[in-house]
C-alpha cells in the first residue's frame, strides 16, 4: 500500500510516517521505481506499535528499543518490563509535579479575594517567586498594603 493508505491504517499523519522512515524507525517495505514508498501489513503493524508507544510517552530511542524487542521472538519480557517500568516511574514523577503545581495554584486562587482591589496573591505568586515558594505568597495573602 502507498504511504497515504499506510498512514491512515496506522492512524498517523503521512509526515510522521515519512519521518519514521527517514530516521530508520519503521522503514517502507519497498520503493517503487518512481521513488514512492510502499508499506506491507507488517510495516503498518510496526507503525501502529510505535504510535501506541508514543501515546504512552516513550521517546524515539525507547520506541526503537521496544520495536527491536517486538521483532525479537527470543526476547526476554524482563527487558520489556524494565523499559515500561522506567516510563511508569517517569509518569508518576510528572503526576507528582503536576499535583504540586495544582495545589500551589489552587492555594493562590483561594487566597485571592477577586475584588476591585489591586492586591492579588496570584500576581504575587506568579511574580518573582520561584515555584514552591508558597510560604511567602501566602504570607502576603489577605494583608492590606
Major β-sheet strand ordering: 1-2
Number of strand elements? 2
Order of helices and strands: HHEEHHHHH
What portion of residues is helical? Answer: 55-70%
**Could you give a short account of the major beta sheet?**
2 strands, antiparallel
By helix and strand content, what is the structural category? Answer: mainly alpha
Share of residues in strands: under 5%
Give start-end ranges of low-pLDDT stretches: 133-145
Structure description:
- The structure is a single chain.
- The protein is mainly α and 145 residues long.
- It has helices spanning 3-10, 14-22, 41-55, 60-71, 77-111, 121-126, 134-140; strands at residues 30-31, 37-38.
- Strands 1-2 form a two-stranded antiparallel sheet.
- Mean pLDDT is 89; it is low at 133-145.
- Helix 1 (3-10) crosses helix 2, helix 1 (3-10) crosses helix 3 and helix 3 (41-55) packs across helix 4 (60-71).
- It is elongated, with a radius of gyration of 25 Å.
Amino acid at each position: 500500500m502507498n504511504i497515504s493508505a499506510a498512514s491512515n491504517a496506522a492512524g498517523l499523519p503521512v509526515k510522521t510516517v515519512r519521518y519514521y522512515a527517514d530516521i530508520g524507525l519503521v522503514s517502507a517495505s519497498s520503493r517503487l521505481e518512481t521513488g514512492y514508498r510502499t508499506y506491507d501489513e507488517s510495516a503498518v503493524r510496526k507503525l501502529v506499535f510505535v504510535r501506541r508507544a508514543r501515546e504512552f510517552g516513550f521517546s524515539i530511542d525507547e520506541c526503537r528499543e521496544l520495536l527491536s524487542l517486538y521483532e525479537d521472538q527470543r526476547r526476554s519480557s524482563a527487558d520489556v518490563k524494565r523499559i515500561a517500568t522506567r516510563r511508569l516511574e517517569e509518569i508518576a514523577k510528572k503526576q507528582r509535579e503536576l499535583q504540586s503545581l495544582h495545589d500551589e495554584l489552587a492555594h493562590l486562587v483561594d487566597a485571592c479575594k477577586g475584588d476591585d482591589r489591586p492586591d492579588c496573591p496570584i500576581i504575587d505568586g506568579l511574580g518573582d517567586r520561584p515555584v514552591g515558594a508558597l510560604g511567602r505568597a501566602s504570607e502576603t495573602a489577605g494583608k492590606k498594603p
